[in-house]
Automatic annotation (TrEMBL):
Keywords: Hydrolase, Signal. GO terms for molecular function: hydrolase activity, hydrolyzing O-glycosyl compounds. Coiled coil: none annotated. It comes from Lentinula edodes (Shiitake mushroom). This is Glycoside hydrolase family 16 protein. Pfam families: GH16_XgeA (PF26113). PROSITE patterns: GH16_2 (PS51762). Residues 1-18 form the signal peptide.
Length: 367
């Protein structure tokens, strides 16, 4: 299992070109936008999607501005890009026990590189995968990887381009962010997550108390239920840590159909207006993302959204690192295995290495 092309289009900072704190709407002229960008960009040395124009030479029109609910406007500017040969320089490898009780050994960087579970191809594509070469006795942990960004974030627009994501019986991959400090009080945002050969991605939030998903929110997915009741309580210490989750409507958002479509792009926007997630299969990636000028206001309703009326997105989510991991069985994939339609038991599935040939993440394909 691997993420075939692990490419971040970039992480972006929410740079406001307005004065919402004073209740004053300001829409800058194109020349003032360009002047503001020129004052920032020379220090970035960041390349987006070749052969697109460089940021220094690209002109920004007022249509590139995102809009707050109060009518003020702002522009997303690049802060970090994680891709290519230096990708793993910006991440640390987690080697502790799996908090979700998976049957897994998370390898350190040296072992992961040596065993071919983490590497960068000659074309710059980043690969992370679970072991698919070792036959195991029943109950023995399978090797895999979990990495965490060295940098922490408080709000932003996060864009991931991947042409393959892990799936398969007993497999449980995730792309997520988690806060520093005591979990779940600083929050967790699960952007890509699923088990087995599911076809629909699940977006989930885990927080401390006093955080609720708004059922009437503007999103296209379906709220996850337990025993017929919507999981709207995001408290990670309640309801067996179910959190508040939304399942995407598209069959191409996870699993075999996602890979057959050539993967796609996932975007997570986190600011004072809430936390929202969009996903686009390869043929439907918005032009503004492809051009390196992402503007969520033109993407339509997100697949999942946590609105500020039910959950403060600033106080409940603090100092987040970016995580990729691939685990096996455990609290979700293990407990749901008997009803998944997969053969045998999860522990039996884990023994045969060929069962995990699609357990990889690939990131880094240029758009």
């Amino acid at each position: 299992m691997y993420y075939d092309q692990l490419f971040f289009a970039a992480f972006l900072i929410h740079t406001t070109l307005a004065s919402p704190n004073f209740g004053r709407s300001f829409r800058p002229s194109t020349n003032s936008i360009r002047s503001r960008i020129r004052s920032i960009l020379p220090s970035l040395n960041l390349s987006w999607f070749p052969p697109s124009p460089t940021l220094q030479s690209r002109s920004y029109s007022p249509s590139a501005l995102d809009v707050n609910p109060n009518g003020t406007t702002f522009l997303w500017l690049p802060e970090d890009e994680y891709s290519g040969s230096t990708f793993f320089d910006n991440f640390s490898f987690y080697t502790g026990a799996d908090p979700t009780h998976g049957t897994v050994n998370f390898l350190n960087a040296t072992a992961a590189f040596s065993e071919g579970l983490a590497y960068v191809q000659d074309n710059g594509v980043v690969i992370m995968k679970g072991d698919n070469t070792t036959t195991l006795d029943e109950g023995v942990n399978r090797n895999s990887v979990r990495i965490s960004s060295n940098k922490q974030y408080n709000t932003g627009l996060f864009i991931l381009d991947t042409n393959q994501a892990p799936w398969g019986c007993g497999v449980w991959p995730a792309f997520w962010t988690v806060g520093g400090g005591t979990w779940p009080l600083t929050g967790e945002i699960d952007i890509i997550e699923g088990v087995h050969d599911n076809e629909h991605n699940q977006v989930t939030w885990h927080t401390g108390p006093n955080c609720t998903l708004t059922p009437e929110g503007n999103f296209t997915g379906t709220i996850v239920q337990t025993n017929g009741v919507n999981n709207t309580n995001c408290d990670g210490d309640a309801n067996d840590n179910a959190g508040c989750g939304v399942t995407e409507w598209s069959r191409a958002s996870y699993g075999p159909f996602f890979d057959q479509q050539g993967g796609g792009v996932f975007a997570m926007k986190w600011d004072e207006n809430g936390i929202a997630v969009w996903s686009f299969y390869r043929a439907a990636i918005p032009q503004d993302i492809q051009a390196g000028s992402p503007n969520p206001s033109g993407w339509g309703n997100p697949v999942a959204a946590l609105e500020p009326g039910g959950c403060d997105p600033i106080s409940n989510f603090v100092n987040h690192s970016i995580i990729f991991d691939i685990t096996f069985c455990g609290d979700w994939a293990g407990n749901s295995y008997a009803t998944s339609g997969c053969p045998g038991t999860c522990s039996e599935q884990l023994m045969e290495p060929s069962n995990f040939d699609v357990s990889s993440i690939c990131v880094g394909i240029p758009i």
